[in-house]
């Protein structure tokens, strides 16, 4: 079997679309179809069911997809190990980041790492904490950096960098000039909430409950799927929110937003690096993990 054809097949099953597969792999749709047909002919089995525009693997296709991913991972590990022997770190590393570390911490670190190891490539997937953890557990990502501690015994967790959540208000808001406010002040104020699965929401909920305050006490006017959407909504005057200081620091410095602390509530947290326990790590993954943990970037 041709590993190139297996890679095309696995990409097709992952994306469930001939057009998207062709786009991602820089091929034409007829070329993708031709490779799949050749693979089916060589194996003497049907690998796909085509239902309109949808592509669904047959039972045999599921087996090939699962084993094909393992073959491709071994290929990448072999390339990296050969590079390591020759003194070079090479290959592709797929990592995940929840909203805040994915947008505000990891990009600059990836840039620094890439400067040290120009032969590597890193694919960064940004999603909420729950989705990043799921992808690490499924083996789709080598590691993730998330904003809430995941209580799953299958995961290996390393403390990374510190963060703080703050109440965020427009610069003209009555709270903007205050250093802190009581928790009860949040009652009745239009509030913008993050979505389920968000590490920011989870930490906020835990710390508010410890202070005797429930999310049901909030006057929630909107639920947003990203910190950036919340930030823009606060600037537009839709309401106030609680966000990472990292997500709003530029707007605070520019005078567009203000950060206020809640009296008696500690909103500090640690971002964590998560990996699947027992999974073998490529030389590139080991080197990147060491880079992250050794630096403990602030």
Q: What do these coordinates show?
A:
Helix content is about 45%, strand content about 25%. By secondary structure, it is α/β, with parallel strands linked by helices. Strands 3, 4, 5, 6, 7, 10, 11 and 12 form an eight-stranded mixed sheet that branches. A two-stranded antiparallel ribbon has the order 1-2. It is elongated. The N and C termini lie far apart (about 45 Å).
Counting DSSP E segments of at least 2 residues, the number of strands comes to: 12
Fraction of residues in H or I helices: 40-55%
The gyration radius over C-alpha positions equals 23 Å
Between the first and last Cα atoms, what is the distance in angstroms?
47 Å
Structural class comes to alpha/beta
What portion of the residues fall into strands of 2 or more residues? 15-25%
Poorly predicted regions are: none
CATH superfamily of the largest domain: Periplasmic binding protein-like II
Tally of distinct domains: 3
CATH topology of the largest domain: D-Maltodextrin-Binding Protein, domain 2
- State the oligomer: single chain
Summarize the helix and strand pattern as letters: HHHEEHEHEHEEEEHEHEHEEH
Mean pLDDT: 90
CATH architecture of the largest domain: 3-Layer(aba) Sandwich
Tell me about the largest β-sheet: 8 strands, mixed
Quickly count the helices: 10
Shape: elongated
Using the coordinates above, name the CATH class of the largest domain.
Alpha Beta
What topology does this entry show?
Layout: H1 3-15, H2 18-25, H3 29-43, E1 48-51, E2 54-57, H4 59-85, E3 91-97, H5 99-116, E4 120-126, H6 129-138, E5 143-146, E6 155-170, E7 180-181, E8 190-194, H7 199-210, E9 219-224, H8 227-235, E10 241-244, H9 245-253, E11 257-262, E12 268-276, H10 283-295
Parallel strand pairs: 3-4, 3-5, 7-11, 8-9
Antiparallel strand pairs: 1-2, 5-12, 6-10, 6-11, 6-12
